[in-house]
Amino acid sequence: MQKPLHIELIATDGNVQKRMLWAHSAVNGVYCGSCNYGRDIHVTYHADGNVFNNFSGKTTKAFTSKTFEEFTGYQQLLCSAFSNNISHLYYPPYKLRKLDAIVSIDFRKYKKGVGCMVFLVEANFNALADLVKHFQTGNQPKITEIHSFMNCNPWLAIVVYGDVYA
Predict the structure, then answer these.
(1) Distance CA 53, CA 121 (A)
(2) 161: closest CA among 89, 120, 123, 107?
(3) Residue 159 and residue 114: Cα distance in Å, rounded?
(4) Are 51 and 35 in contact (CB under 8 A)?
């Protein structure tokens, strides 16, 4: 049986650390959302393929996709973009707590802001490579970091993008 996986994305400007996004993977589904104060914004992808959006307590069914057993390729679950002026962002400060993983992003290296996306990825390296290739073609944002979590099925990937200082 798959052990639950708890992940948070933390942002810093060298002075302040804030909780920006969270993700949780379990046998019955994958859940991810924003840590924004005053808003409960999250997406759930259930093992049976049903996907739901929740905005401030109102849940709506988004679509039905493949079950975890049938899952192939990759599927974007969440996309958020943030100003790099972290002290003015309405997100809670990071406090040490038990997590399985922390993705830490230093906003000082970005010129204008940072974008983050959470993906479900089929549990194989070809699917992860296809996700990376997707961002190397056309008008896609330039990936600066990709964090993959392979101790769940399907895998989770957090993609970070933005214009960095040279």
Answers:
(1) 19
(2) 107
(3) 10
(4) no
On whether the pTM is more than 0.90, the answer is yes
Q: In the structure encoding, which two tokens stand for residue 71, read together? A: 């899952």
CA 69, CA 130: separation in Å to the nearest integer?
A: 20
β-pairing, 101-106 with 113-121? unpaired
Q: Give the pLDDT of the chain (166 residues) as one tens digit per residue.
A: 578 999 999 999 999 999 999 999 999 999 999 998 877 799 999 999 999 999 988 999 999 999 999 999 999 999 999 988 888 888 999 999 999 999 999 999 888 889 999 999 999 999 999 999 998 887 888 889 999 999 999 999 999 998 877 5
29-34/17-26 β-pairing: antiparallel
Can you give 68-86 as a three-state secondary structure string? CCCCCCEEEEEEEEEECCH
Euclidean distance between the first and the last CA atom of the chain, given in angstroms as a whole number = 45
Provide the residue ranges of all domains of the chain, joining segments of one domain with +.
Answer: 5-161
